[in-house]
Automatic annotation (TrEMBL):
Protein name per Swiss-Prot or TrEMBL: Histidine decarboxylase
InterPro entries on file: Group_II_Decarboxylase, PyrdxlP-dep_de-COase, PyrdxlP-dep_Trfase, PyrdxlP-dep_Trfase_major, PyrdxlP-dep_Trfase_small, Pyridoxal-P_BS
GO molecular function: carboxy-lyase activity; pyridoxal phosphate binding
Source species taxonomy: Eukaryota, Viridiplantae, Streptophyta, Embryophyta, Tracheophyta
Cofactor dependency: pyridoxal 5'-phosphate
GO BP term, example: carboxylic acid metabolic process
Residues carrying N6-(pyridoxal phosphate)lysine: K317
Keyword Lyase: yes
Pfam families tied to this protein: Pyridoxal_deC
Keyword field: Decarboxylase, Lyase, Pyridoxal phosphate
Membership in a protein family: Belongs to the group II decarboxylase family.
Keyword flag Lyase: yes
Organism this protein belongs to: Acacia crassicarpa
Amino acid sequence: MALSVSLPAFRISDNTDIKYTETTMEDATFPFLSSDIARYQVSPLMGWTNKPIQEEDKEVQIPKAPQQENGPSIIKPTISQFSGVHTDETLARVIASYVDTLPHLKDHFLGYPINQDFYYEALLKLMCFRLNNVGDPFIGSTYMLNSNQFELCVLDWFAELWEIEENEYWGYVTNGGTEGNLYAILVGRELYPDGILYTSKESHYSLFKVARIARVKCVVVGTRPSGEIDYDELKASLLAHKDKPAIINLNLGTTMKGGIDDLDVVLQVLENCGFTEDRFYIHCDAALFGVMLPFINKAPKISFKKPIGSVTVSGHKFLGCPIPCCVLMTRLNYVDVLSQEVEYLTSRDTTISGSRGGHTSIFLWYALNKRGFNGLQQDVSECVEKAIYLHNRLRDHGIGVMLNKFSNIVVFERPLDNTFARRWILADKGNLSHVVVLQHVTMEMLDLFVTEFVENRSIWYQDNNGGKKPPCIAEDIGAKNCACSFHKKLIS
């Protein structure tokens, strides 16, 4: 699947096409964005510290590359020092020194779903321009320094992937997954002002924040050990509030476990509970898996041919966009519930944030074209294969571990030592930690991680260490995946 680089027409509500002068860009290249961090030095393991520059004529302190526990200190200039007193050379040294700390972190970056292996150096020239995709991307605006044409290409690509016709969808590239989820749930609320939001306890934290912001009553539904929503509990909750429309968030890959809610089962539950299609709205949060599932054989299908209202997928996760962003897609006939005309822009205010960085749409367009359909399919296959490899290695060493089908998220017992967890930048929740196997995660990284985990674990749980034993995580990921002393014997 390829994305055309010619500039498409913009679509507006009265079906009138506003044509840009057709432009073709051969071998277009785009930038890697750096954060504005010249003001600070960062300690990757210990967080931020406040260390003001003592005198404006003193040399700026340069951080050292992180070792184990302690990272570099932070430079935090006082207000009076924001006056250009430091030379470009001095500031460049601070940035260069900070950059030197990053390879160490990348080589141990296992716990979060951010692809660190996509490079955008070819895009650097775009940093000379302040691109802003303010307004409705299908209409454009009088702010002409935008990348709406690339944004529409990206949206068309996902529309084809998720099986919705060009004249039936609307969407935009948001500033992050939370904004995408907020938009989706707000659409559901506007369609059904008295509706109740149903979402599982394994949902991304943004869903519960969105419920508070939107002032929607939220029913939290329990889950199975896999992280998948408990359909019996969902049914009971729906029946308990049968008089109210249902706004349902489904997780196509939960944050911690990679559990996938089954859309077909949920649709059947709704039918059995007496909810017709005009009394429910379904949002699919596919932050990570939205780009993965379509490339996995026999995986659940994301399709607008089914009665779903919206889908979100993060651009900075599997695709590795260097700036957080999200592709939000919904049905065109829903967009009016959250839109108003803006004379100042000669556009419609249809988005949450108004101003949106124009670079992210180009990053996504570049990534999709650079990898192509076959390249993405290969990436997905390799990530899943490496996840299976990690699962099997941990299991062989007697460590409680789970890997869901179609997932690249390996869940295991939480390491006892926080220093070890920080070294490998693991994400923890309760008794569990996980590794998200993405493109930058090599076999060598996984082997080193397992070796260190096994070695440290033998120390944590040795007989003379206070009688500590590996935790029982049967309730968290199921008895068959637990390696505590009780379940280990039970399974064997």
